[in-house]
Every structure is written in C-alpha cells, then in structure tokens.
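User: Hello! I'm new to structural biology and keep hearing that structure can be predicted from sequence alone. Could you demonstrate with TPR-like protein? Please show me the input and the output so I can see what each looks like.

Assistant: Of course. The first part below is the input, the amino acid sequence of TPR-like protein. The second part is the output, the predicted structure written as tokens.
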Amino acid sequence: MDDFTPPGRSVDIELGSQEIITIDLDNLDPDPEDVLSLLKDGQCKIWVWTKLAGEYWRRGYLEAADKIARSAIESFQANGTASSLPPIYSLLANIQIAYARKAPKLVLPDARQDVMTGEKSKEEYYREAAQLLNTGERAGAESGEVGGTLSFLTRGIQQLATRSMDDALRSFDGVLIEKPTNLVALLGKARILYARRNFREALKIFQDVLRYNPRCTPDPRIGIGLCLWALDHKSKAAAAWQRSLEVNPSEWPAQLLLGLEAINSSKSDTHSEADKAGLFLQGTKLIGEAFNANQKSAAAANALCEVFLRKGNYKRALKLAERTIQFADTLTILTEGYLRAGRVSHAEGSMSHATKYYSAAVEGQPKHVLGAIGLAQMQMQNDEMAAAIHTLDTLLQPPNAQRSMEATVMLAALRAHPRPGVSSSDVAQERTKARDLFDRVVKGLEIDDVRTNGQPPSKASRNIADDMEMHAEIARLYQGESLERMGKALKEALRISETVGQIDPRLINNLAALNHLEEQFPEARSLYEKALISASLLGTDAGEAMSTTILYNLARVYEDQGEQSLAKDAYEKLVSRHPEYVDAKIRQALMLANLNRHNDAHDLLKQCLASQNNNLNIRAFYTYFLIQTNLPKPAKEFVFATLKDHDKHDVFSLCAAGWIMYHQARESRDTSSKGIEERRRGFQRTAEFYEKALHLDPLCAFAAQGLAIVTAEDALGSLGGALNPTSGADEAQKRLKNAREALDVFAKVRESIDDGSVYFNMGHCYYARDEFDRAIESYETALTRYHDSHNVSILLCLCRSWYAKATKDQSYTAMNQALKYVQMAYHIQPTDKAIVYNIAMVQQKSAEMLFTINPAKRSLRDLQRVIDQAAHAQKLFASLASDKSPMVPYNRDIADQRRKYGDNMLRKGDEHLAAQRQFEDEAQAKVEVARRKRQEEKDRQEEQERLRMDELRKEAEKLAEERRIAREQAMEWTREVRMESDEERERKPKKARKPKNDVGSGDEAEPKKKRRGKLKKSTSEGDTEEQAMFSEEEDAERPAKKRPAKKRVVRDDDDEEAIRPQKKQFKSKAMLSDTDDEMS
C-alpha cells in the first residue's frame, strides 16, 4: 500500500472540476457512509480507496474498512475498470485474515461456558481470503499486470496462517529476492524458521528486523526473546521481552511471556518462599493484563485457566479452557486446553466430560503424559483397569517412550492390583512387570540424587520418593520373593511415616514380622512392642484391631525366644479381650500339648471348633493334633469329614488324608490275600489324594514330597503286597531307579519348603542307593539345622547309616559313630526298648568286627573296649529276652539267640587279647629298635656338628688375635712416623718448588709412568692404620718428594690422615704382594 500513498495525513477528493474536499485522516468518522459517497461521486483512484480503508483498519474500524473495500470493488466493476482492483483484493484478503485472528478455530458444539455456536471459524475466513487473492491474481492477469510485492506478501501471510510453511517460505523468499529488507517478509521467514526449530537463524533475522526498524510492529523483540529462551538464554530472553513492554506498553505478547516467565521462576527451589509468592503474583497479574488486552488469545486463556483452576474457581476456569480449545492455533495449546477442561470437569466430579476431554487430549498427542494419566484415572473410576493399563503402557512403550515417574508408578500399582477374570499365571506375570516398573522408578530416583550433586532433588522426585504407599506396595510385591527387598521397602516407608509424624503401626508390625521370619527375635520383639505402643495411642476401633494382631505376633516371638510364661500371659490377655480369637486359643493348645497336657489342649480345640466349625485352619490344626497324639482313627474320620462336609478341595486335608492312608497301609500286618489287597488299595488312594492336591495347587511341596515317598518305597509295587514279586536283581534295579526319581523330586521340594523332613527323606533315598556318606550328610543336616540334635527318628537313621557304612568298610570308627547316635537317642527316650536292642546289637557287632580284622588294623585298647561292650550287650540281650511285657518292639527269640552267640564269641576274647598283646609287644620292640638306631644316628651327627663348630670358633679366635696384633703394630708405626715428620719439618726450612718438567734420576724416574693416586681412605680405623703402615715402609726404602701442601677441608674421620705429610706415595708391586701375604 505504501507504493500508492502520497505523503501527508489528509486526502483530497475532487468533485467535478472545481470542488475539492479534504478528508482529515486523524479525524475519521466511524461511520464510513459519507466517505463512501464522496469516493463514489469523485470516482477516486484506487490508491485513495486503499488509503482510506487502511486508515479505518489502523484505527480499529475493521468493518468500515471491509465495507470501503467491497464498495470499491462494486464501484470499479460498475465503471468497467476492474483491472485496477488487485490492491483492493489484497487489502480485503488481509482484512479477512485479520478477522480470522479473532475467530475461533474450532467451535465446540457442547460448550458449557464459552458458547460460540454462531461464530464463523478461522477456516472460513482463510478460505475467503484465498478466494479474494485468487480473484485479484486473475484480475491482474487479465489486465496484463503481474502480482507485485503486496500480492506476494498477502499470499505468504495467508499461507503462514494456514500452516502451509513451505509455500509461505517461497512467497517470502520471492519478496526478499527483490527487497532484502522487507520487514514483513523477514518477520514471516523468521516465524517459519522458529517453527522449524532453527532458532539461531530465526534469531538473526529478528535482530536484523530490529536493526532496520526499532519501532516495528509486531515487535521483533518478542521473536528475539523466544529464540533466546529456546537456546537456553533465559535471562536475555526476559530482558528482550521487558524491553518490548517498555517500548510498547499496550501490547499483550510481552505481558503474557513475562507472566509465564515469572510463574516458572516461582517454581524454582533457589528462591525463598516469599520470593516465590511474589513472582507468582506478578506472573498472574501480567497474564491477566495480557488476556484483558486480547481475550481471543488461546495462550493467554490457557495460562490464566491454570491460575483459576488452582484457586478453585472452576466455572471461570472451564470458560477459559473452552476458550483455549476454540482459539488454539497449535496442537500443543489445543492439547493443553483439552487437558485443563478435563481437569476442571474431574475436579467438579463430571467424569463423563472429563473422560471426553482427556480422550481428546490423548487423541491429539498420544504421548502426552498428563493427558494419559488423566484418561487412565477416568478409566479407573469407571472400573476399566485393563483400559487404564493399556493407556499408560502405550505412553511408556516405544516408539517415543516417555520417561514419566508418575505414570510408571501408576502403571506399576495397577499391574500389582489383582483384577477379576485374570488367571493365576497372568497375575504372576503382572506382579513381575509391576516389580520391574517399581525397580525402574527406584533406580530413576537414585540417578536423580546423583545428578543433583548435593542440591535438593526436584519436587516431583521428592514427592515420589516420599510416597509411603508406594514403598508399602513394593514391600507387598516382594513378599515371598525377596525378604531383603521387602525389608528395604518397609524401612523406607517407616522412615517416611516417622518424618511426617504419622507413624503407622502396621508398618512397624510388618517390619517386625520380617525380622521374625528371619529369626532375628530380639529386633522383632523390640519392633512389636513399639508397634503395640503406637497402636494403643490411636484409641479407635482400628487401633484396637491393630493392637490385637500385634499382641498375637508379640506372643509368637515370645514363644520362639523360649519365654513361655510371657507368651502364655499374652495369649490369655488376647482371649480375655476377644474370646472368639481362635488363633490365640490354637497357640495355647499347642503349648499345652508340648507340656503333654493333651486333654487340656483337646478341650481348647473343641471350643474353637464349637465357635467356628467351618474354619479350615482350625480343622487343619485339629487334624495335626490328632495325628501327633497318636489318634490315627479319629484323625482319619475327622479329615474325611472335612473333605466331605466342608471343602473337598482343601489342599491341607487332601495331603493329611494321603498321609493317614499311607501310614495305615504301610503299618498293616495282614498277610492274607484280602489284607494285601486292602494294603494295595490304601497306597493307591494315597497317590490319588496327593495327585488331587497337586492338581489343585501345582506348587504344593508337601503333596509332591508324599508322591516322592510313595515312589521311593515302591508303594504301588512290591511294598503294596504284589503277589508275584520280581527277582532279586530286578528288584534291586527298580529300587535304585525309584530312589533316583524320588531324589529329583525331593531336590525340587527342598527349594520350596524349608523343612527337615525333606532332608530326612533324601537321606532315606541315599540309603536305599547304598550311598551312605550322602545319606549321613542329609540326616545330619536335618538333625542339626531343624531339630537341634533331639529327633529320635533321625538319630536312629544316622545310627543305621553309620552301621551300614561300618559293615561295608569294616571300619571300627564308623561303628563307634553308630553307637554314639543310638546312645543319644536312648538319652532322649530311655524307655524305648527298640533303642536298647539297637545298642546291644551295635556293641556286639563292634566286637565281632574287631575279632575278624587283622591285628595291625586294631589296637589292644579298642579290643578291650569292645569286649567290655560286648559283655554289656550280653546283659542287655538277656534282659530283653526275659522281658515279660505283652508287646515288645523286637523278637525275643532273636534277642536270646544274639545272647547265645555273644557267649560263644566272648569265649575267644582272651585268645584275641593275648594275640593282640603279643602282636603289639613285637611291634613295640621293633619300634624301639628302630627308635634307638635313629637316636644313635642323631647323636653321632650332633657330635660331628659340635666338633666342626669348635674348630671354626678356634680359627675365628686366632684370626681375631692376629688382626689385633697387626692393628697395634700399625698404631705404633703411625705414632713414630708422626713424630719423625714433626721433627723434620722443624729442622728443614721450606724449599722452592721444582718445575714440573724436573724428573728424578735413576729409579725415581721409572715409577713416574706407573704411579698411582693416593690409596682410598676407608671408614674403618684398621684400614687407615694399615695404609699408614704401608706408607711408612715405602718411605723407608726411598727418599720422599716434597711438594707444597694444599689447603683442603678435613673431616673428623680424616684427622689421622691429615696430620701425615702431604706427598705422593708410590708402592712397588713386590712390596704390596709381600704385605698381602703377611697379612693373610
């Protein structure tokens, strides 16, 4: 437009040839009718129409500008001069684009607050602008005029508004080729580069625009600040926006951006609480001013909506959210609008509307974290757990997986929560996935702590890390999987609970139970007591329920610590407060049973059954009690009643029934065909009960162990009473095979249950395979680890294994071990006559074994001991054979036969003792001879060594004496030389120094070629004295040369050398050799 506008703030319109009317552009009438009449009457040129329409637009009279532009089109078409209309078409297209800026992009048909159903949308305005531009181009083409700069700029603006970035960039580049400083084209290109995240190039262009025109509108400082913010120069960005606000106080973009910057700064932990509050108030004020300046701005409405949402003004917040949705130009702002509308509806309790808005947000941006979390919450409210899991899983899974701790925690909690209709295998998989997700969250929190470098972590990380419920959920997930991880999570939850000052007794109780399971009884007791005190302070029904459970746990730990009186008091207190608390009564019954007060225990259990006859736990314990008190028939009737009348799928009752049927069949002594058939049928029913239990619970280790026992003992084969047993060799092979298969099962059962019976049964299998060492190892593990060396059955099995090993290896040591274990069993049950029989048998077998082995492999002491033991065994056998009891656990005839056999064996005892004594005497004599020879040889060698050392000592003393004499002579000679030298110096005056070329005559000249330097000084006094001695001898043979003395530093250890004459010393080879020989 500037190309057609002459300078000045008025426009002259000529009416006819004489009348000219001047229109003052600064005082335009808002009603353009008079102006239109003048324009039509004066048949003004096109630039006048555009000038006046543009001026109306600039003053805010957009409708008047539109009316003038359309009237111009009618006027020029009526006059037949439509070829001049392209500028008008461009102007009118720009007016439509201006209308579009204030029009909604999307009209919500069901808006509740911001109703705009009668408004035209942006798309309609943009479509009309495109039609006007096309019409203008056709008009220009018909008149032969090519579209100019205005047409290109308008087309570029329209393309930019409709997000046709490539076409808009080509349009702006076309303008910039002709006019590189065109501000509109530069601003458009910079906006496109910014949208494409080419922030550095966009920043450069915005800065160029500011340099070309510092008063340019729209203000390029806004774009400069946005680019700097994207480049992480936030302080510079805020400075740019602040300057823009100073230059253009009435413009809203700078206010909005500065308001958002202030609110963001208020979230930083580097500010104090007062500063945060001040920044937040400043930001909300600026955002409010920006929205008041332009109420059609989606960005301002979105920011202001968050403020009202936090204030709880949901009605105003919903209107702003709907305004954001309807006027949003970008997908991000649109998604934010849907999200905030969903949050408002969620807060108001309108779940259907919230679901709709959250779904729209996720549909637009499937990876939007808050949208996905909001939608998942609505799905949870609607009990659509699977859909919620799918929503969050889609968010966290590739492609473009989001890293959101909040969503991860939420998904983990959903997967950990059991859902109806999900199989047990799927539940286990879901729990595994939940554990993995929680592990990812914990590792993420640890990484955040490392990244902060001593600074406090982010608020989101702190909120998640301090979520007590999350850590409690982690503990529940690891229950039964990892006690270590469970304990760690419980401790963290307890720490958080203590930090906030709301200690949950349940956490302390759970942590105590964990220590209890790990047999850390003092720690568990302390925590139980702490939890009990904490629960008693609550004073509500919930506190009473917690106190009851915690007191029961405390009583259990009293039991485990051996504090029976404390446990008894605790159970009595529980029963007095809650007579229906059957768990406490069961523990009381067990304590009474352990004291052999079976009748009292039986009464308590009957009370429990009377009050809760359908309680399967009570029925299970009562079955156990009947079996332990050796009442198999009532136990059988009771357990079959449980299966028939209460729950035929009770796994414990099935296993108990299998155990009872097995022992009934195994102990059957009826050898008739009917008895054998009943025995076999009993074993078959045993297998059926165990198989049914495993079908109901494939992980039931007790049922698996029962089947393994049936397999190992071949209960369905020969043990079942088969009429046609296989041959001995085949039977042995089958026994080994069955034991091997049973061992495989026991090995798996051992991983499932921590019980001594597993090792006990494994020992049986190893014994059946004649692997006595491994059998002994298994028995000892069961005895020491689980029964504190006080289980009679295991002790007797150890005796049997050591006995078999001793018999196989002919080992007296192994037989002694067998005797030790059977005697331990006797000390526990001294009235058991079977044990007495076993003791007598082991003692007699010990004597028999030593009688048969080579005298070299036994000792007289051991032989005497076993003879004494055999004599004791004779007394035991005699006592057992004469026992008149009606029922004894052995055969009296065999006992009497063993006694008679012992009598015959012991008659040879003296003979064996004499032979052993003779053997040992002969062996001792041989040993004594050998020892004497060794001693004599040792004495001879010691004497030789002593003589050699005496000789060496004498030689050393002689050498030391010779050296002493030599040193004394050297010292004497040195003193004489000093005295002569002093006298000579006193008698003779100094002589002039001879020239260096003077040489001696005769013998003195010869040594000059071979002379040596001074002998090196030694640190030892002896070497110094020897040097002095050698010099004296040389001086006595030849005259000395006199040289002037040189000044030098003399050390303390050089005193003796320093007082000698300073002259060259020469030694002949013969002299040195003689000296060496003399010294040696």
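User: So the tokens describe the shape?

Assistant: Right, they're a compact way of writing down the 3D structure. Reading them back into a model, for example: The beta strands are 10-15, 19-24.
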